[in-house]
Amino acid sequence: MTKKLFLKTLATASFLMAMSLPALAAEGGSGGGTYKIALGALAVGIAAVGCGLGDGNAIAAACEGTARNPGAGQRIFTTMLIGMVLIETLVLFTFLAAYLGF
């Protein structure tokens, strides 16, 4: 790492640490409570959209693979099903985090 890059990194880190001190000294308030439900719904919605796109791509690839090689259909289906389960756990974890955090 060059000296110039090191000095820039050090200056940036120092600036960020100095700017975070007032946030740590701030008094606790009730701010941000009005948007908790909306933010939770937004988080679950974004996760559901991403998982829907992932599921669609997985199913399309599995159908294409089965069409190219019908003999491997059962193995492709099993692999696709495991992949879809892993994709759907993202929605469940996001829902759980939104439920517990908000």
Automatic annotation (TrEMBL):
PROSITE patterns found in the cross-reference section: ATPASE_C
Database matches in SUPFAM superfamilies: F1F0 ATP synthase subunit C
Superkingdom to which the source organism belongs: Bacteria
Keyword Plastid found: no
Any GO CC annotation of this UniProt entry: proton-transporting ATP synthase complex
V-ATPase proteolipid subunit C-like domain ranges (all copies): 41-99
InterPro entries: ATP_synth_F0_csu, ATP_synth_F0_csu_DDCD_BS, ATP_synth_F0_csu_sf, ATPase_proteolipid_c-like_dom, F/V-ATP_Csub_sf
Subunit structure: F-type ATPases have 2 components, F(1) - the catalytic core - and F(0) - the membrane proton channel. F(1) has five subunits: alpha(3), beta(3), gamma(1), delta(1), epsilon(1). F(0) has three main subunits: a(1), b(2) and c(10-14). The alpha and beta chains form an alternating ring which encloses part of the gamma chain. F(1) is attached to F(0) by a central stalk formed by the gamma and epsilon chains, while a peripheral stalk is formed by the delta and b chains. F-type ATPases have 2 components, F(1) - the catalytic core - and F(0) - the membrane proton channel. F(1) has five subunits: alpha(3), beta(3), gamma(1), delta(1), epsilon(1). F(0) has four main subunits: a(1), b(1), b'(1) and c(10-14). The alpha and beta chains form an alternating ring which encloses part of the gamma chain. F(1) is attached to F(0) by a central stalk formed by the gamma and epsilon chains, while a peripheral stalk is formed by the delta, b and b' chains.
HAMAP family linked to this entry: ATP_synth_c_bact
Protein's UniProt name: ATP synthase subunit c
Organism: Chloracidobacterium thermophilum (strain B)
